[in-house]
Amino acid sequence: MGDANIKASQWRQVEVGRVVLFSTGLYANRLAVIAEIIDHKRVLVDGPASKPEKVVPRHSAALSDLSLTPIVIDKLPRAAGNAAIKAAWEKAQVDKAWDESAWAKNRERSVKRRQLTDFERFKVMRLRKQARFEVRKTMAAARASAKA
Amino acid sequence: MPSLLAPTRESLSFSGQTGEEQREERDRTMAPPQSAKASRNPELIRGIGKYSRSRMYHKRGLWAIKAKNGGAFPRHAPATKPAPPAAKAPKFYPADDVKKPLLNKRNPRPTKLRSSISPGTVLIVLAGRFKGKRVVFLKQLPSGLLLITGPFKINGVPLRRVNQSYVIATSTKVDISAVNVEKFDDKYFGKKVEKKNKKGEGEFFEAEKEEKNVLPQEKKDDQKSVDAPLIKSIEGVPDLKSYLAARFSLKAGMKPHELVF
Questions:
Q1: What pTM was computed for the model?
Q2: Count of H helices and E strands in chain B?
Q3: Chain centroid to CA A144
Q4: Which of A127, B152, B162, B241 is the most exposed place for a label (fewest CB within 10 A)?
């Protein structure tokens, strides 16, 4: 038998300390962390945030309303209270990690695109055409020099 | 003169005056009105005043007015009405009642302008010869139609009328303060009424037809005078001129109900 590198399959787990994103409901688009797992379908969730409109109060949320993010707050004690969670949240710099993630940036980009006015869409089209032209020009030059 | 055969509505009126005449008479004969005073009878609840009829009689001083007038409330003698002209008996009375058409009190006014449309807004025309063109809105005409211009030099749309329903309003606005559109109204755009000429021979007919197709110089000058300051303010905004020159079209993946204009 040859050497086979078998990597065990891994996926994001529902665990204490997992940062989650609300996809629907009253707290849509807000981050929170799992404080405790209630049962197969529900988790106790708490989301301290610097901006009051992004705060998620401590409550039990259905997992169907949440999306798991790759961010985990390590060693968060089970059923930690609000203050402890807030301290751990700030220590782990969850907000910063989220804002820098590709996921957050993609969301922001789609929101921006959806809100473009007709004039802005025209300007974007123009700029993309110009960028496209530059890229193709360089490619053509590269191809020409490669042939020669 | 009331007739026993067929009473019409006029014959049944109680006074010889119209409502307007009665009002005029009242204004003429009554004392000039003092400044409107609030009611002396405060309202406890709708329909019920605080004071009774007898209390109000005393509050209003009707007893004093009567005393001043010798015991009776002063009444003006009715104004002498001019003798009504001797009406001639009509020649013909219809056998059945003639129905009167219902009153039409319609007050024609221009269509309500959408709040997103204001002078200087860039509109997208959706139908007709210029569909897809982005165009500048100038003002709403008395008929309710919108007065627009390309400007002509930019996208070929002349001074024209367009219906609000066939237009998408974008959020882009052009500075229109330097443009004067006072002189344009619906008559300017209406079809010219031609004098009826006698049916001439072939030559006559051809000569007339040729004249029709030429746009009068006056209209060309109007276009230029409106467009000149407009183009100046358009060129002040980067990309706006080419934006107005381009046509709008739906591309793959564009959902009109989700687009922000």
A1: 0.67
A2: 8, 7
A3: 43
A4: A127
Return the residue of B nearest to A125 by Cα: B243
Interface of chain A toward chain B, CB-CB under 8 angstroms:
114-119, 122-123, 126
Which of B170, B239, B246 is nearest residue A117 as measured by Cβ atoms? B170
Q: Are A46 and A36 in contact (CB under 8 A)?
A: no
CA B166/CA B156 separation, integer angstroms: 18
Judge contact between B184 and B141, C-beta under 8 A: yes
- Spatial distance between the Cα atoms of B84 and B2, rounded to a whole number of angstroms: 13
Q: What is the mean pLDDT of residues B212-238?
A: 91
Q: Which of B172, B258, B259 is nearest residue A119 as measured by Cβ atoms? A: B172
Q: Is the pLDDT of residue A76 over 90?
A: yes
The Cα of A54 is separated from the nearest Cα of chain B by a number of Å equal to 26
H or E element in which residue B204 lies: helix B202-213
The pLDDT tens digits of the residues spanning A85-131 come to: 999 999 999 999 999 999 999 999 999 999 999 999 999 999 999 99
Inter-chain CB proximity A118 and B172 less than 8 Å:
yes
Please enumerate residues of B whose Cβ is less than 8 A from a Cβ of A.
122, 124, 134, 170-172, 239-240, 242-243, 246, 248, 258-261
SS3 A116: coil
CA distances from A6 to A3, A10, A12, A103, B74 (A): 9, 12, 19, 28, 116
Residue B212 has pLDDT above 70, yes or no: no
Render pLDDT for B245-259 as a digit per residue (tens, 0 to 9).
999 999 999 999 999
